[in-house]
Structures are given as structure tokens and as C-alpha cells.
Design a protein that fits this description.
Rossmann fold, four-stranded parallel β-sheet, alpha/beta, 5 helices, binds iron/sulfur cluster, 4 strands
């Protein structure tokens, strides 16, 4: 078989790789900040840390324009239907970062009124530990998520159709 040498300015790759590369470098976050972690989320977007360096600075408050949910702070039961609705309104493929102990586990609020981990209701891709996590940690979680998107991404986003990512709406009380 003849081996064809390509010119220096020509590269060969898979379409999946290109699409994933575009997706990972143009994440549009939907901030869902309910408590003190939200302040660190704001600091992450401010000039000192500058999340724009990672292509994820376009915070939008319309779920239909977002593909990255960042839950920062505790979520009480009353707010869970709101969070679920926003998540369902976001277009696919979409991802979720659970920021801080409260969002991931309920934190120190071990009480009936606080959700003991948002992953009981929506799928979570990356958990950020801490109370609160520093902006550097959130940035690292975005970098980790970008790596995941690059590795798992397919052009049609079908990997996100997995049943684990399509959890049915769950009753708040069981
Ligand atoms: S994890 Fe700590 S800083 Fe974050 S919302 Fe809970 S109590 Fe506040």
C-alpha cells in the first residue's frame, strides 16, 4: 500500500475529536448559586482567576443557552423542583458540576429540608470538595470536565443518552 506524505499544514483527525474539542472549549455555564459557595463561583469569573482562559466565562441565566450547570451551595427541598426544571430545559449534551460539600452531600445541614446530594435528582459529572472550594478548585474541575468531554464525546452526543444521565423526575418525599 502506498504511503502518502501530507504537506506540513495538513492534519488528519476524527470528526468526533473536532466536535468534542469545540464543545469543551465553549462551555456556557448556568450558575445555580444558592449560598456561600456562590461567592467563590463569582470570584472564579472575576479578573483575578478569569475563567475565560478556559473558554467557560459566558455565564447565562437562560437554561436554553447553557450546557454546564454549576450548582454552588446547598439546595433545599423547596428549590429542588426549580433546579430540576432548569436542568431539563438545558439543551443536550449538558454537564453538571456539584460545587462544595453542601451541593454534593448536604454538608453540615443534615436535616430533612436540605437535599443530601443533588446527584439524587440530576446526574453530576464532577464533584468539587470543600467548604467552600477555592476558585482554583472550580477551575480544575472545569479542566477535568473538558478532558472527559474530549475523551467520551461523540458527534451526536449519544453517549449522553445513557439511562444514568436521563434520570426520571423523582418525588421529593419517598
Ligand atoms: S459547602 Fe460550605 S461554603 Fe459551600 S454552601 Fe455549604 S456551608 Fe457554604
Amino acid at each position: 500500500m502506498a504511503i502518502v506524505e501530507l504537506p506540513e499544514n495538513v492534519g488528519v483527525t476524527k470528526l468526533d475529536e473536532v466536535v468534542s474539542w469545540c464543545r469543551k472549549n465553549s462551555l456556557w455555564p448556568m450558575p445555580y448559586a444558592t449560598a456561600c459557595c456562590g461567592i467563590e463561583l463569582m470570584a472564579t469569573g472575576a479578573s483575578k482567576h478569569d475563567i475565560a482562559r478556559f473558554g467557560a466565562e459566558v455565564f447565562r441565566f437562560s437554561p436554553r443557552q447553557c450546557d454546564l450547570m454549576i450548582v454552588a451551595g446547598r439546595v433545599v427541598m423547596k428549590m429542588m423542583p426549580v433546579l430540576q426544571r432548569i436542568w431539563q430545559q438545558m439543551h443536550e449534551p449538558k454537564w453538571c458540576i456539584s460545587m462544595g460539600a453542601c451541593a454534593s452531600t448536604g454538608g453540615l445541614f443534615d436535616t430533612y429540608s436540605v437535599v443530601q446530594g443533588i446527584d439524587r435528582f440530576i446526574p453530576v459529572d464532577v464533584y468539587v470538595p470543600g467548604c467552600p472550594p477555592r476558585p482554583e478548585q472550580l477551575i480544575q474541575s472545569i479542566v477535568d470536565l473538558q478532558e472527559k468531554i474530549q475523551q467520551e464525546g461523540k458527534i451526536w452526543g449519544r453517549e449522553f443518552d445513557a439511562p444514568s444521565r436521563q434520570q426520571p423526575k423523582r418525588a421529593l418525599q419517598e
